[in-house]
Amino acid sequence: MRKSEVLAAEAVSCLNRALAALRDIWEEIGIPEEQRLERTDVVKKHIKGLLDMMVAEEESLKERLLKSIALCRKELDALCRELRLDPFEAEEESTILQMEKDLRTRVQVMLKQKRDRQQELKALQEQDQDLCDILCVSPFGIDSNAVPSLEELDRYRRHLASLSAEKERRREQFVSIKRQVILCMEELDHTPDTSFEREVVCEDEEAFCLSTDNIAALQNLLQQLEARRSLNEAVCVELRSRITALWDRLQVPEEERESFAVHMTGSRAKTRKALQLEVDRLEELKLQNMKSVIQAIRVELAEYWDKCFYSQEQREGFSPYYDEDYTETLLQLHDAEVGRMKNYYETHKELFEAVQKWEENWKLFLELERKTTDPNRFANRGGSLLKEEKQRAKLQKMLSKLQEELESRVQAWEQEHEDAFLVKGQQFMEYVAEQWQLYRMEKEKEKQERHLKKSRQIEAEMMYGSTPRTPVKRRVLTPHTPGKVRKLNTTSISSATPNSTVRSAFGATLYHSPTSRLPPSGGKQFGQARTPSRVALKPPRPGHREQNKENVSQLNGTTLSARTFKGFQV
């Protein structure tokens, strides 16, 4: 049994006891029956009224609870729509009181969510407005009167985060550009003369509007200032170049140059002004020393002619070079020619340097070739002869490679410029061919001179006979001049053979003839010319052969006439 039922039974028992007690009292008092009935009716009416009043109050409570449930349901539906949430479903099995409590609690929670979202939206809108004012952009599109959804708030937060990042990026960009603008203005001695420049340089950084237009205008300002600074730097570089050239031409003392060294760096306006004043002073001094200046320019012009491989005819084409009337007009002509030659050389510098490299290697090659005719080269010490042969072989390969590269580069240059590339008045390949031709002619001339000398020696021996050599002299030559033996073994054996044949045919009469003697001067001359032939016929001693094995192996069969360069047979 429920406690409520037990309490109800106790209430009924209490009522019965109370009525019984009233009856006993009335009995003792002696109240008549009619009055007892009246009194009992009053008790009944009183109890009934009390109970009716209590039932009415409870019924009222029930009605209030039902109305509250209805209102909460209605409010919950509205809040779910505003908050974009699913409708709330209450438990149907719960009592009226529990349902009312659950609905009322849910309404309070949803009202709190609504207030929180509205407050967050307001804060985000305030932050958005501040960023929009700084960046000069439109606010985020959202209904201020509606309750935002969680997705809308999340998008709004991400939008503001991107705006904040953009603000910081533009702020850093603005600070960086502003710093560069200030530096440029300082170098140019420029003061802000427009409202925008003053706003950039003089106003507070936080007050500057970081709009795209302002950033673009700031970048444009920086570009203009940098262009002016670059122009100023170029002018200063040109002025310094002119000053240096004038110093060299006028032979200005080093002390005077050092005193002006403070202005030889930087490009500020005062530096440019100082450079211009120095140029004006030197130009005036140049006019006062016209002859020495022109002569200095001619030296410089000759250097550029050499670098560009100008022929004598090309040099003579500039007739003012030979004019002795030193006037300002002549100076201007020389300055113009130096400028033209300098520009021509700088434009084709790589090609000229390549030609110069070929020229240097060619001269080194000719020098090594001249050394091959020197008898002293066979006095080999420390493998110098082997080193020369290796160096000559390396030069031959390098010359061939350089010639091939230059031929292709010169052809490309001529096709590009539609003009002939001249070296000392000739096309490059013609110039190279001429050098090889001169080299071959020189070698042929040397060969003919050797043959002529040998013919004269043979004639002298036929006419006057051989000059006998004492054994002592032969011993002096053979041990101490092994280089000559090696040379004769490779280069003179063929020329010695006919000589020995002549001596074998006529030596019996000519060698022992007491009357066949040369005068002292003539005998000395022909004796010296004939000495290699007599020594060549004598076989080298075994010890010397072993000492000279290295050089002999290098010299045998390495004559230059067997090597071929591109287009030229040596």
TrEMBL record:
**An MF annotation (GO) of this entry:** microtubule binding
Q: Per its UniProt record, what InterPro entries does this chain match?
A: MAP65_Ase1_PRC1 (IPR007145)
Please report a single Pfam family linked to this protein: MAP65_ASE1
Q: Which GO terms describe its cellular component?
A: cytoplasm; mitotic spindle midzone
What ranges does the record give for the region Disordered, renumbered to this chain?
513-553
Which GO biological process annotations does it have? mitotic spindle midzone assembly
Tell whether Coiled coil is among the UniProt keywords.
yes
Coiled coil feature spans: 385-416
Q: What is this protein called?
A: Protein regulator of cytokinesis 1 isoform X5
Lineage of origin: Eukaryota, Metazoa, Chordata, Craniata, Vertebrata
